[in-house]
Amino acid sequence: MDSVAPNGARARTRRAILDAALSALSKNAAASMADIAAAAGVGRTTIHRYFPERSDLLSAIGTHLLERIEVATVRARLDEGPADEALERVCQEYFELEDVLLFAFENPQMTDWTGWDDETESDRALLRLIERGREEGTIDAGQPAAWLTEVMWSLLYSAWQHTRGQHASKHAALELSLRTLRKVIKIER
Amino acid sequence: MDSVAPNGARARTRRAILDAALSALSKNAAASMADIAAAAGVGRTTIHRYFPERSDLLSAIGTHLLERIEVATVRARLDEGPADEALERVCQEYFELEDVLLFAFENPQMTDWTGWDDETESDRALLRLIERGREEGTIDAGQPAAWLTEVMWSLLYSAWQHTRGQHASKHAALELSLRTLRKVIKIER
DNA sequence: CCCCAGTGGAACAGTGATGTTCCGAAAATG
DNA sequence: CATTTTCGGAACATCACTGTTCCACTGGGG
C-alpha cells in the first residue's frame, strides 16, 4: 500500500483530502477529523491511512500552501516591468488564493508548524521587488519594505472580508484593494 | 452568594477573571478553562462560579469588549474638528486596545456570539465620521465608507503584527499606520 | 473476469476538557 | 471578634475527539 509509485488512485484521494481539509478548516478552524472526512466525502479511517496524526495533515497542508503561494509568486513575474505594476500583478495572483490564505491567517494552530519561521523565497522576492521600486522611484521609500508587505496582506484580507460583510463582488473588492494599494505606495511630493 | 449588591469582592474577582481570560485567550486561542484559571491566579471552580459555562464567559468577554471599544470611541470625540484629524484620534484610541482587538480578530470561536451582527453605536459613529469627511473634502470620496473602515482595522492589525515580527516599537508602528492611513484617505487630484 | 489495492464502518481504548458537587480554609464584613 | 461570604482543591461523571484494529466490500487494472 505504501508503494513508491503513486498509483494514481492514491494521489487522487490524497489531493481530495488535502483540498477538503483546506476548505473545511478555513470555514471552521475547529473542524474535527470527522468533519474533514465528511467534507472530503471519505471515511475517517481513510484520512488516518494517509495522515496518521492530525499534525501530519496540518504540515502537509502547510507545505501545500507554501507551494501554491510560490506558484502564484512565480506567475506574477516580479522581475519584469515597473515595480508598481509587478506589485499589482502579485496582488491579483494572491487574491485568488482566498481559501488558502484565509486559512493561514485564521489558523494560529499552525504556530507550532516549523516552516513559517524561515523566510520563503516568495517573501524575499517580494521584499526585493519593493526595494527595486524604491530605487526606481515607483514606490514610496518613506515606508519600510516590511511594512508595505504587511499592508499588502492586510488589504487582501480586507478585500475578502469586504466580500463577506458587504454584498460586494469579488472583482469590485479586488479593485478597491488595488486602488488603495496604489495610493499607499504613491510617492509624496 | 448571588446577592443583588455587588460586594466589591465579587466585582473584583470577576474583573480579574475577565482580564485574565482576555489576555490568555489572545495569546492562545485554544486556552482551556484550567489555563484561564491559572492565568487569573484563581481556582478553576471559581471561574465556574461566575461563569457556569464556557459560553457564558465568552459572551461576558464579548460585551466587555464592546464596552471598551465604545469608551475608546467616545474619547476620540468624533464630532469635533476636521474629520481626518478625528479619524487619526480614533485610530490612536483603538491602537491601545491591542489585547482586546487581537482577541476579537483571531477568535472566530465567537462567531456564534450574538452581538457582532447588529451594528454598534461605534460602527455607526465611524461611518458618520467618514461621511462627514467626504462632504468636508478631507476624506477621499472615491472609496466606499465601509471599505475605509475595513482598511482602518486592517492597518491597526498590521501595526500590531509589525511590532511582533519586526523589532519595531509600538510607537513607531502606530506612526506607520497613521502615515499610511493619511495617504489612503488623501483626495486624489 | 478475477483479484487485490483501496476503502468504509464498527468497535475500542486513551486522553483531555468540561461541568458538578462537596467540604474545609481563608477572607471580608459588620 | 463572630459570622457570613467567598475561595480552592479533590473527586467524579460525562463528553468529544483521537488514533487504532479488524473485517467486509467494491471497483478498476492486469
Description:
Two copies of one chain form a homodimer. In chain A, 69% of the residues lie in helices and 0% in strands. Chain A has 189 residues and is mainly alpha-helical. Chain A has two domains: 1-52, Arc Repressor Mutant, subunit A (Orthogonal Bundle), CATH 1.10.10; 60-185, Orthogonal Bundle (Tetracycline Repressor, domain 2), CATH 1.10.357.10. Residues 1-5 of chain A have low confidence and may be disordered. Chain A binds chain B through residues 29-30, 106, 108-109, 140, 142-144, 146-147, 150-151, 153-155, 157-158, 161-162, 165-166, 176, 179-180, 183-184, 186, 188, and chain B through 29-30, 106, 108-109, 140, 142-144, 146-147, 150-151, 153-155, 157-158, 161-162, 165-166, 176, 179-180, 183-184, 186, 188. Chain B binds a DNA duplex (30 and 30 nucleotides) through residues 1, 3, 7-10, 13, 32-34, 42-46, 48-49, 52-54.
Write a compact overview of the structure shown.
The structure is a homodimer of 189-residue chains. Chain A has 189 residues and is mainly α.
Radius of gyration of chain A: 19 Å
By CATH, the architecture of the largest domain in chain A is named Orthogonal Bundle
Mean pLDDT of chain A: 90
Number of helices of chain A: 9
Q: Helicity level of chain A, as a percent range?
A: 55-70%
Terminus-to-terminus distance of chain A: 66 Å
